[in-house]
Amino acid sequence: MRSLCEAYQLGIIIRNKLRETNLVTAFENLDHSIDSIEDGYPAWHPAPLSFRAMVFSFVFVEITGDSYADFSRRLTRQPEVATILGFSRVPDESAFSRAWRNRFAARTVSSP
Questions:
Q1: What is the rounded distance in angstroms from the CA atom of residue 70 to the CA atom of residue 106?
Q2: How far is residue 32 from each of residues 3, 6, 97, 107, measured CA to CA in Å?
Q3: pTM of the predicted model, to two decimals?
């Protein structure tokens, strides 16, 4: 349950920052720990995409209402956003779908 509280707090912090700035800048200036949010992949699993970047991406998607395909296109058009979120390359929509199914606990997700 602690991870749900931390994810909620992250959303509140971002919401408060949006009063002063735009969404991309809010993420760029974000300094928030996600240490208690557990990666659904075991430690031995080679995850090609940063867990922190995926968590931030899902918060971003929830705020914007983008589909995985729209979000992937947004990152392609705005590579600086991909960098701010922590990606070294732009993931495709299937990467987000797999991460949603496999990296986040079943009790914390519902199909977007």
A1: 24
A2: 13, 9, 24, 23
A3: 0.65
